[in-house]
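Course assignment 3, question 2. Fill in each field.
Student: A.L.
Task: Predict the tertiary structure for the chain below.
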Amino acid sequence: MSECVHRKLCPNECPCDYLETEQDNVNHPAHYTSGGIECIDAIKASLGNAEFADYCKGNIIKYVWRYRSKGGTEDLKKARVYLEWLIRVEEDIENGNAKGNSD
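Answer field:
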């Protein structure tokens, strides 16, 4: 597996199994990357762990809520990615890493 482009969110093993040569609308949509920076990395850096956890929770609810009427299993996969991030950020909080600089 290639290294994940959002290493700060996936410091050990990326839950999304992303290969940099693949187009992936669930884990790394091209329209959310600008200048080599993914939007999600900028969001996490600007929020810190507690606020990012809330952001993830909101997106999980959104994608699970709408999956039958809009995105189908792709929305469930998006919710799963946000759940993985939520778990990691909560683990950081539990370990006393409030800002999320675990790398």
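Instructor remarks: The radius of gyration is 13 Å. The CA atoms of residues 55 and 86 lie 9 Å apart.
Grade: pending
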